[in-house]
Amino acid sequence: MVRAYSQEHTYKHPWERVTSASWRKFADPENKRILSHILEVDTLNHKLDSISGRLYTTRAITIHAPGPWFLRKIIRQDICHCVESTVVDAQSRSMQLSTRNISLEKYIEVEEKIRYDPHPDNPKLWTVCKQETSIRIKPLSALASMAEKIEQKCVDKFQANSAKGREVMERMCKYLEAESRGISA
C-alpha cells in the first residue's frame, strides 16, 4: 500500500524570489527553530550546464526519522538520510526538486517532488508550488490495516512539516523582498 498526496500553493512573490528563498530556507537561523525536523543539509555537488543554462544540485539532508514514535522504536533509529536533486532552468523559469530517503529503505520509502513555476494567472508576480509525496511502509505490507494506519500517521507528519516549510518560504520571501528594497527585515 502506498499513501500519496499532492498539494498546491501560490506564493504571491515572483519566481526569482521564491526560488532564492528555497535555496536559503535551511541556512536561516530563525528557520532552524521552525524546521526542527531538519538536522543537517550538505551540498554534495552542483553543476551549471553552460549549453542549456540549467543548474543541477545534489544535497544530503538528515532529518528526524519520519512517522510515529513507536515506528522509530521498532526500527531503532531516530534519524533518516535523504538525497535531494534539484534542477533549475532559469530560461524556462522552472525549479524542480526531488527528495527520497536513502536510509531506512527496508522499512519506509518516501519520495517528494516539488516544482516551482510562474503562476499562469500572474506569471510576473506570483509563483505556483506543486508538491507530490508518496509514502510506503514496507515490512507491514502483509498487515495492510496496520500499514495503512502508520502510513496515514506519516502523511499527517509530512503535511504538518510541509505547512512549516511554506511558512518558512513566505518568511524568506518577505525577507528577500525587504532586502531588495534596501530595508532590513
List the helices and strands and how they pair.
Layout (H helix, E strand, L loop, with lengths): L2 E9 L3 H10 L4 H6 L3 E11 L5 E11 L4 H7 L3 E11 L4 E8 L6 E11 L8 E11 L6 H37 L5
Antiparallel strand pairs: 1-7, 2-3, 3-4, 4-5, 5-6, 6-7
Helix pairs in contact: 1-4
Pfam family, one: PRELI
Protein name: PRELI/MSF1 domain-containing protein
Organism: Solanum lycopersicum (Tomato)
Question: What percent of residues are in strands?
Answer: 35-45%
- The portion of residues assigned to helices is 25-40%
What is the architecture at the second tier of CATH? Answer: 2-Layer Sandwich
Structural class: alpha+beta
Q: CATH superfamily, please? A: START domain
The count of strands amounts to: 7
Physical arrangement of strands within the biggest beta sheet: 1-7-6-5-4-3-2
Q: In total, how many domains does the architecture comprise?
A: 1
Kindly state the mean pLDDT as a whole number? 88
Task: Describe the structure in your own words.
The protein is of the alpha+beta class. Helices cover 32% and strands 39% of the residues. The chain has one domain: Alpha-D-Glucose-1,6-Bisphosphate, Chain A, domain 4 (2-Layer Sandwich). The protein contains four helices and seven strands; from the N terminus they run βααββαββββα. It has a seven-stranded antiparallel sheet. A hairpin with a 4-residue loop joins strand 4 (79-89) and strand 5. Helix 1 (15-24) packs across helix 4. The chain is globular, with a radius of gyration of 17 Å. The mean pLDDT is 88. InterPro entries: PRELI/MSF1_dom (IPR006797), Slowmo/Ups (IPR037365). This is PRELI/MSF1 domain-containing protein. Residues 2-181 form the PRELI/MSF1 domain. Pfam families: PRELI.
